[in-house]
Amino acid sequence: MKVTISKPADIVGAIHAAYEGLSAREKEVADHILAAPGDISMYPGSELAARVGVSNSTITRFVKRVGFESYEEMRLAAREARQTGSPLFTESQVAEAAENGVVGRFADAEAACLRGALADLSADKMQQVVAALLEARQVAFMGFRNSHFLASYARRLVFQFRGGTSLIPSSPGESIAERIADLGKGDMAVVVAMRRTVRPMRDYVEALQASGVRILLVTDPSVRILPTCAEWTITCPVENPHVFDSYAGPMAALRLIAFEAFQRSGAKGRAHLARIETVHERLDELS
After folding, report:
1. Burial of 78 (C-beta count, 10 Å sphere; 0-12/13-18/19+)
2. What are the boundaries of each domain within the chain?
3. Gap between the Cα atoms of 93 and 185, Å rounded
4. How far apart are CA 78 and CA 25, in angstroms?
5. CATH architecture of the domain formed by 10-86
6. Measured between alpha carbons, how far is 22 from 28 in angstroms, rounded to an integer?
7. What does residue 176 show for φ and ψ, rounded to 5 degrees?
8. Which of 3-7, 20-24, 29-33 has the lowest mean pLDDT?
9. Do 145 and 196 form a contact (C-beta atoms < 8 A)?
10. Which residues form the signal peptide (predicted)?
11. With b meaning 16 or more CB within 10 Å and e meaning fewer, what string describes 238-255?
12. What is the torsional sign of CA 277, 280, 281, 286?
């Protein structure tokens, strides 16, 4: 599969593209770098080897496998990315002191996750995603386990101003293949894949890609390979000092995309919403 890598995230993209073919030890190096890509700009290859617990030769092989001529070249790319302010390459730390104790620390951690997610949603990426969302014949929202409620939330926002939306999976008696087979060129899939998703997720995303479906992937920094299948990826930090993952970032990114799409939908989107409200009133469903 041909993958186009663009700066400043070329290191991350290159590692994702090469990940499947790496050895077990090389994958340890990849996982260490992807956890904090900007850190490699600050130390030599020998220190990276010591941190991961591998040999210097493993670092050399890894660098070649992901497409760089030398560790120094990869290190300079990471330094450049830090200087451009790429959120993947800049440190994000929770404030050690907060005015309101545990509540303040929790708020700081949530805010850091939210800022990290929105920082990865550039104006250009936003415009492309919004245009695709409005132009698509059908828009499918896919997610499993914890990602399912995020996909469902995104769909609930979008179906208020456009038709032709669906949720995958939607019912226990339905196979994923049946839903994917209904999608093709001219359609879009919003795939939410936060960490610890189901094993066949890669197969599902590759099947969507093979059908010509345009894919927006909303994920976290731990996910491997899947970004190479997506046209757009929004990477959302979810890990923080508290036990449970934070979904403040992906929910904010999905809501912002829906808001911008609704704004751009104009009279057509508002007419769709008005029809829904009319039926609500007729059926007297809501209090």
Report:
1. buried
2. 10-86, 114-280
3. 42
4. 21
5. Orthogonal Bundle (1.10)
6. 9
7. -65, -35
8. 3-7
9. yes
10. none
11. bebeeeebbbbbbbbbbe
12. negative
Query: 102-143: per-residue pLDDT in tens?
Result: 788 888 888 888 888 888 888 899 999 999 999 999 999 999
Amino acid 190 reads: V
Note whether 10-86 and 114-280 share their fold. Answer: no
| The two three-digit tokens of residue 237, written as one number | 């930090």
User: What is the token pair recorded at 125?
Assistant: 């990426």
Query: pLDDT tens across 69-109, in order?
Result: 898 888 888 877 665 545 555 544 334 444 567 788 888 88
For residue 41 the two structure tokens come to 């700009």
Q: Are strands 188-193 and 165-168 parallel, antiparallel or unpaired?
A: unpaired
Number of Cα atoms under 13 Å in the Cβ half of residue 245: 16
Does 114-280 carry CATH code 3.40.50.10490? yes
